[in-house]
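Duplicate of #3305? Posting structure anyway:
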């Protein structure tokens, strides 16, 4: 952000978030982690006006920068927020109820220094109810981090420091469950920071799975995943690729591929902002079909 660009006033930021229900203003998106976006770019309007601001999730924000969602569409989405009897919006509770008969609770804390909200599902199915405890522990840990971090910072009165997050089920079947945790941190500046982390478990009984657990020992799985992901992302970004970021972020290291989920057709790897591309490019994903890695998967663990 330019040194001459002021932060969005706290009252306006809060009003924009409340207008959208503290989630993405694109009603079919439903992501609860958001940031404030200027419909007409700040560089043109040089102002933070409520009518020109909209709450977007990181993926929709990236789509705007890529030109997939234009300013006129954003204006229509903002108008939609003010329509009465909005029956198309589902609460986070109803979303989780569709996924393994669960409910959700929100862990909240608001004070003069920061706002914190984390949505945590509470599962009713016996074999995965332990997940509720695990995820609540993650949320409490995030709250303790926020207390420590934001109180140490030299916070300005006009800034609302925020930490928001929530869990969603990325994949579930009778054998496995994959959870994604999306968090958003804002402490002033042009935009906040987003992060996706994942949890993977085998069911009956619940057994946590790391990447190394699902591959045969000595199979050099990291080399294959690294090569496949790098080539896929290079084709995806084309001439816009930053070679250093891409090479570093896809090097054959466990940490680069620690965020993954099961899917019906393969393993999906998540690359956070700045791992392999810029903030404007958003969070990236690479799906490696099971047919390409079947001979190095640990069938004893996965059966």
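Output from current build:
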């Amino acid at each position: 952000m330019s040194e001459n660009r002021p932060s969005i006033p706290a009252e306006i930021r809060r009003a924009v978030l409340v207008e959208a229900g503290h989630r993405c203003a694109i009603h079919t998106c439903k992501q609860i982690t958001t940031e404030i976006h200027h419909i007409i770019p700040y560089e043109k309007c040089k102002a933070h006006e409520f009518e020109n601001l909209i709450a977007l999730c990181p993926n929709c924000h990236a789509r705007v920068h890529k030109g997939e969602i234009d300013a006129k569409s954003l204006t229509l989405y903002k108008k939609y927020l003010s329509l009465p009897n909005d029956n198309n919006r589902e609460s986070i509770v109803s979303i989780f109820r569709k996924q393994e008969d669960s409910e959700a609770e929100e862990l909240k804390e608001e004070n003069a220094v920061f706002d914190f909200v984390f949505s945590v599902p509470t599962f009713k199915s016996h074999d995965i109810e332990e997940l509720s405890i695990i995820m609540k522990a993650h949320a409490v840990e995030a709250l303790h981090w926020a207390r420590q971090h934001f109180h140490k910072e030299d916070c300005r009165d006009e800034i609302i420091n925020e930490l928001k997050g929530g869990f969603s089920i990325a994949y579930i079947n009778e054998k496995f469950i994959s959870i994604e945790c999306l968090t958003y941190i804002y402490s002033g500046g042009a935009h906040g920071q987003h992060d996706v982390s994942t949890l993977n478990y085998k069911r009956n009984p619940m057994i946590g799975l790391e990447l190394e657990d699902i591959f045969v020992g000595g199979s050099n799985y990291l080399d294959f995943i690294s090569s496949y992901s790098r080539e896929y992302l290079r084709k995806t970004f084309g001439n816009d690729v930053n070679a250093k970021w891409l090479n570093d972020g896809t090097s054959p290291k466990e940490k680069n591929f620690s965020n993954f989920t099961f899917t019906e057709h393969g393993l999906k790897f998540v690359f956070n902002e700045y791992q392999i591309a810029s903030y404007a490019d958003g969070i990236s994903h690479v799906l490696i079909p099971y047919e390409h890695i079947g001979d190095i998967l640990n069938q004893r663990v996965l059966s």
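Confirmed duplicate; merging threads. The chain has ten helices and eleven strands. Residues 10-81 form one domain.
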